[in-house]
UniProtKB/TrEMBL annotation:
Pfam families: RNase_HII. Its EC number is 3.1.26.4. One of its GO terms (molecular function) is RNA binding. Belongs to the RNase HII family. It comes from freshwater metagenome. Residues 21-223 form the RNase H type-2 domain. This is Ribonuclease HII. It catalyses: Endonucleolytic cleavage to 5'-phosphomonoester.
Length: 223
């Protein structure tokens, strides 16, 4: 396996070596779509897990994987991570709040779900947890539960915890877009998943936007 393509636990192990037991990988999917929600995935990695080094070997940056490969590893990946959650912000929230605040809200919802279990919250407080966030800046802000946030460019490519969060979020969002395709036929949502493909833009010009389109994103497309 090429280290340039497949993620490792190098960043997570450096966090563990600083005395932390947990790493929470976070990444978003659907940011650039023009229809449907944005999703943020969070995955919890526990250094005390006996299976720490046994993540699914096909795991990569979700954007480099086929839909089939992502779906195939979703269940074993869910079993491997200590816990995971997916948070969403709707197209309406994106229009009303802007994409940055909508991403923050989705991340907060995912973390709220992750922290529902009081015993897990207690363990994190006692034994240390750090968030590993894909990107170039800390876009979580106040929703990070006061945890230290380590930002890393291309963490979705290089860090197992973040790649896992992204794949699980992508599989979940893709399944939702397939359901929405049945509810809003004619746009091809099951295929492009809400992104601005040529077929999607053509359908928009013919049919106009539907209830799940991000209207503030369509001004130039429909001009």
């Amino acid at each position: 396996m090429s280290s340039k393509t497949f993620p490792s636990l190098d960043a997570e192990r450096r966090i563990f070596e600083r005395g932390n037991r947990f790493v929470i990988g976070i990444d978003e999917v659907g940011r650039g779509a023009i229809a449907g929600p944005v999703a943020v995935g969070v995955s919890l990695i526990d250094k005390s897990s006996q299976d720490l080094g046994a993540w699914p070997e096909k795991l990569q940056d979700s954007k480099l994987m086929t839909a089939k490969s992502r779906t195939e590893i979703a269940k074993p990946l869910t079993d491997w991570v200590g816990a995971h959650a997916i948070g969403f912000s709707s197209n309406t929230e994106i229009d009303e709040l802007g994409i940055s605040e909508a991403l923050r809200m989705a991340a907060g919802r995912a973390l709220d779900e992750l922290f529902l279990e009081a015993s897990l919250r207690k363990l994190m407080a006692e034994e240390g947890a750090v968030i590993l966030l894909d990107g170039s800046h800390n876009w979580l802000g106040k929703v990070s539960y006061g945890l230290d946030v380590q930002v890393q460019v291309k963490a979705d490519t290089n860090c197992v915890s973040v790649a896992a969060a992204a794949v699980l979020a992508k599989v979940t969002r893709d399944a939702l877009m397939q359901e929405l395709d049945q509810k809003y036929p004619g746009y091809g949502l099951a295929g492009h998943k809400g992104y601005a493909s040529a077929a999607h833009i053509s359908a928009l010009r013919s049919l106009g936007p539907c209830a799940i389109h991000r209207l503030t994103w369509l001004t130039r497309i429909l001009a």
